[in-house]
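Appendix C: a fully annotated inverse folding record. The material below is reproduced so that readers can follow the format used throughout the book. The structure is listed first as tokens, followed by the designed sequence.
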């Protein structure tokens, strides 16, 4: 009996190691403690919902023909899905396509520009790289941003410089893996800022080892930003404090929760996967993490992610799983009394976060273009 019990304990320990809980459980515990002390909100809360997709038509070294078919599936399928749902502002769901620079194909970027002009999303930047150097990465970032930007993607600052949001391929921001793979550049965070990045949307990455010990927060990275895993140290974003010299970290929900009808626990990591569909229970868990700018608790930020381009992902996401998600959002979280729903892109989510930091209040919809304007490809286009 003792031997069996010991084996079960050892099995549980091994499962925990596989989840890399040691890298983030302390931060999650702090988040839970802060949640207990969170101020009560009078009146309706505003739910800001963004899907940030690691959108890779060339995934798994796909041929051009396969990639073209994947792009067409979204060009046809996403408008068909989105037209059935609207938020409190009368806008349809909006998808943030984080496109991998190393997969650049002009025709794919033009197809995404068509979706953007239709008010259905915007393009941001995704990158896989390995064994890199600071100098090479700087050159690659500038080249990729220029190539994608030629199609009217990315916001522009007053000087005309492209501004972009970032997701790191394989979650390996700032050379975060112990073995040094999938990046190679310790000082990636300041380099991103130098080349026009305004915010990072990489996390959560659990159960991957890159997951930081800062959980369920919008925060500014602090300390020596040129060091490896510099995102591990940070200060929570709060009303009245804006750091203009660095990127903003915007995390999605991460928690441990009980499986429906069972005693066992599951990891909620905010990923949209065919094997883990967006059920009402999952949506509830996302919202309950209460990610917000400190001092503006009535604006709740929910950022989820997907790998939506490959067929096995796109089918459910553009079909039953997508409908399941948006039915729940538009019915449960858009009654105007308890919740007001706003579909946002990554850029709009950043703008609203900055508006909160600057002390703006009221309807967050009014601040969706607060700091960074829409990309050129949607200028003059209807937003709904």
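Designed amino acids, in order:
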């Amino acid at each position: 009996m003792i031997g069996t019990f010991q084996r079960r304990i050892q099995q549980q320990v091994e499962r925990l190691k596989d989840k890399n809980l040691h890298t983030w459980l302390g931060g999650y515990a702090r988040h839970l403690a802060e949640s207990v002390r969170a101020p009560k909100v009078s009146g309706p809360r505003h739910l800001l919902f963004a899907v940030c997709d690691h959108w890779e038509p060339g995934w798994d070294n796909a041929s051009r023909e396969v990639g073209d078919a994947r792009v067409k599936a979204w060009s046809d399928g996403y408008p068909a899905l989105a037209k059935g749902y609207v938020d409190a502002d009368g806008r349809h769901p909006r998808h943030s396509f984080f496109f991998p620079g190393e997969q650049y194909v002009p025709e794919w970027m033009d197809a995404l520009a068509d979706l953007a002009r239709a008010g259905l999303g915007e393009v941001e930047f995704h990158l896989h790289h390995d064994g890199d150097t600071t100098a090479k990465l700087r050159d690659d970032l500038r080249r990729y941003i220029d190539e994608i930007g030629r199609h009217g993607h990315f916001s522009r600052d007053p000087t005309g410089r492209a501004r972009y949001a970032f997701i790191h391929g394989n979650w390996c921001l700032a050379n975060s893996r112990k073995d040094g793979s999938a990046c190679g550049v310790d000082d990636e965070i300041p380099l991103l800022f130098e080349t026009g990045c305004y915010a990072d949307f990489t996390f959560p990455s659990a159960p991957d080892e890159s997951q930081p010990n800062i959980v369920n927060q919008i925060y500014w990275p602090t300390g020596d930003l040129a060091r490896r895993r510099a995102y591990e140290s940070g200060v929570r974003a709060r009303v009245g404090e804006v750091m203009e010299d660095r990127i903003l970290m915007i995390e999605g929900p991460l928690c441990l929760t009980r499986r429906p009808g069972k005693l066992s626990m599951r990891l909620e990591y905010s990923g949209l996967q065919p094997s883990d569909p967006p059920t009402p229970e999952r949506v509830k868990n996302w919202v309950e993490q209460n990610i917000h700018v400190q001092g503006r608790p009535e604006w709740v930020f929910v950022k989820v992610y997907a790998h939506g381009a490959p067929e096995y992902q796109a089918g459910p996401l553009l079909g039953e799983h997508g409908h399941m998600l948006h039915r729940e959002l538009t019915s449960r979280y858009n009654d105007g009394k308890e919740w007001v729903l706003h579909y946002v892109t990554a850029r709009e989510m950043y703008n609203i976060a900055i508006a909160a930091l600057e002390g703006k209040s009221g309807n967050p919809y009014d601040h969706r273009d607060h700091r960074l304007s829409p990309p050129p490809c949607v200028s003059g286009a209807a937003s709904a």
